[in-house]
Amino acid sequence: MTFDFRTVDPLKDAELLHSWVTHPKAAFWMMRDATLVDVERAYMEIAADPHHHALLGLQGGVPAFLMEYYDPARRELVGLYEPLPGDIGMHFLTPAADAPVHGFTRAVITAVMARLFEDPAVARVVVEPDVANTAVHALNEAVGFVPERTIRKPEKEALLSFCTRDQFLAATTAEVSA
């Protein structure tokens, strides 16, 4: 599977994103009760923030998933761990599907990680999923993430995990040769 990326347009994409983030499958995104205006406003704030970015992943030109990345020294994880130069934080969301495609979410996280590592300044990706989100823990591990510890964020208890470029390449190269 191949994907392209484009920046989220908060006004044009709000309705689509609202349908994704309020779906029961997206419970860990923590926007289940958001109104359309809430979603529009949230993505307008991201668009205006030089340290947080939102992209749509496109498959054949059609929006297929949401990706966010951020500077963990300035957003999300400030004061919760000691960031290193080259750290970047990441979130991704695959929408609910009427007919799930086997391997789709794995392809998405692989594409997201490859996109982040296209930037030579990125040395390590940081994630902080909810400790209860075991499905994403397995996906993270599959692309090379190593859990470090549990941290307490205002909205959740999270599993702080890291993946270096080498860990990602080792995990995805092993996957291809397996």
Question: Helices and strands in order, then pairings?
Answer:
Blueprint lengths: L3 E4 L2 H12 L14 H13 L3 E8 L2 E9 L16 E7 L10 H14 L6 E4 L6 H9 L3 E8 L2 E9 H13 L1
Parallel strand pairs: 4-5
Antiparallel strand pairs: 1-2, 2-3, 3-4, 5-7, 6-7
Number of distinct beta strands: 7
Q: Report Rg.
A: 16 Å
Poorly predicted segments: none
Q: Within the largest sheet, what's the order of strands?
A: 1-2-3-4-5-7-6
Give the averaged pLDDT, no decimals.
93
DSSP strand content:
25-35%
Strand count, sense and closure of the main sheet? Answer: 7 strands, mixed
Helix content: 25-40%
- CA-to-CA gap between the ends? 18 Å
Q: What is the subunit organization of this protein? A: single chain
The arrangement of helices and strands along the chain is EHHEEEHEHEEH
Helices, by number, come to: 5
The chain-level structural class is: alpha+beta
Silhouette: globular
Please explain how this structure is put together:
It contains 5 helices and 7 strands. The protein is of the alpha+beta class. The radius of gyration is 16 Å and the shape is globular. The two termini are 18 Å apart. The relative contact order is 0.14. The mean pLDDT is 93. The chain has a 7-stranded mixed sheet with strand order 1-2-3-4-5-7-6, sandwiched between helices.
